[in-house]
Design brief:
31% strand, binds zinc ion, 296 residues, eight-stranded mixed β-sheet, 7 helices, alpha+beta, single chain, Cathepsin B, Chain A, 16 strands
Length: 296
Amino acid sequence: SLGTGKVGLRNVGNTCFLNSVVQCLSHTLSLRDYCLTKAFLQEMGSQDAQEFLRFLLDRLHSEINRCPPHRNPAHTNLAPIIEEEAAMMWRKYLERENSKIVDLFSGQLRSTLHCSICSHYSTTFDVFYDLSLPIPKRSVAGASVSLKDCLELFSQEEQLDQENSPVCTRCGKRTVSTKRLIIQRFPKVIVLHLNRFTMSRYSISKSTVSVSFPLTQLDLGPYGPVDTGPVLYNLYAVCNHSGTVNMGHYTAYCLDESGWQCYNDSRVTPIAESQLQSSQAYVLFYQLDVSSQARK
Ligand SMILES: [Zn+2]
């Protein structure tokens, strides 16, 4: 389909997974614009010594603080320190990694571990390019699941037994603990992976549960830090997986100026909005809504 800007990609032997992802990425408008204009401008930020010193002293102080800890430290005096640590970790990350990919796709995840023995909270920050969401098991066969259900399961407190728990930094032991994930920093483009494949000892199985997802105004604010407010995203591409674990095929649905198109290797056909949701949806590409971006 030369001239329309919609170009299919030939399958050269099990390359449909590659084709579908390339289609989704090439519909990330600001990434495409960037590649087309070759605007490789780099702005290197430098670590501020004073900021680092302030952070360091703050942390040292809290470790040797003579005052007894507050009753609920995670929600009171520790909150500003956590925010500051998150910001510092992010600055350190940007010092090492600086590209258009980072600008668009990377976000920050906060993981909080709470020790049941000594009540110590330890917080770690990780950079992510995509979030892998678990699909909740439904007791009723055929019962549908929403993307919100997956996000709730992803962010809900998880009980870790002694074996699976990391070492508590205060007790120095593995203890029964709880873990919680929060999206500390939202990327411009968020890639949500619906984790359909479950590995057991002898085999991999695929969940074919239909997961419904909003095309516009997906609000991820509730999965951010307390009082984040709405953080809205709009869908622009979907990577689909059909078939079984061993005999599967990938396609992509992508949005352009003329609407949604289905990219099935070299074939490109229009697709109705009402057909986008299926039990084959596998990776969802959302971009931050312009109004959300302006507020940040
Ligand atoms: Zn502990």
